[in-house]
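User: Some background: our group keeps a shared notebook of sequences we're curious about, and every so often someone picks one and asks for a predicted structure to add to the entry. Today it's my turn. The entry only has the sequence so far, pasted here. Could you supply the structure so I can complete it?
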Amino acid sequence: PSAELEIFYQDKWLEVLGCGVLRNGVLEKAGLDPNANTAWAFGIGLERIAMTLFSIPDIRLFWTEDKRFLKQFSEGKITKFKSFSKFPPCYKDFAFYINDSYNENDFHNLVREVAGDIAEDVKLIDDFTNKSGQRSHCYRVNFRLMERNLTNQEVNELQIKIRESIKEILKLELK
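Assistant: Of course. Here's the predicted structure to add to the notebook entry:
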């Protein structure tokens, strides 16, 4: 048996103050005879309250170790949750030589123009200067959709388009 208090909040029922009888196995592990004892567990429902406060849609997110969830919140601040994809990322690296006129924002804009929202983020992972003084950058692009997995073919096609655009639009040499 169990019981709970439900509050009608924003056109939905919100479960708080839940309680229930402990299972016999829990009592046995505590050294109690389940036939002679009954125990109840009570909870306030802080997760449900936090869900409404931070606009978190799924209680299971509280037990995740996903940094995309955890880094959204900081002590002393009320921040509205920003959804993220539950599907795996697909990373592709792009390395090319840069020149004095190169502006990093140009590469970021090029990725957004080619891949749109499929490109979740772009990060510089290497800044290298060779013995002859040529400088190169390597960027890692994270491709991911919110509603489904991407196929290898889709990501490979985007990679080819971005590589071609680096040469044609940015006029840079690929490594």
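Suggested note for the entry: The radius of gyration is 26 Å. Strands lie at 2-9, 12-21, 40-42, 90-98, 119-129, 135-143.
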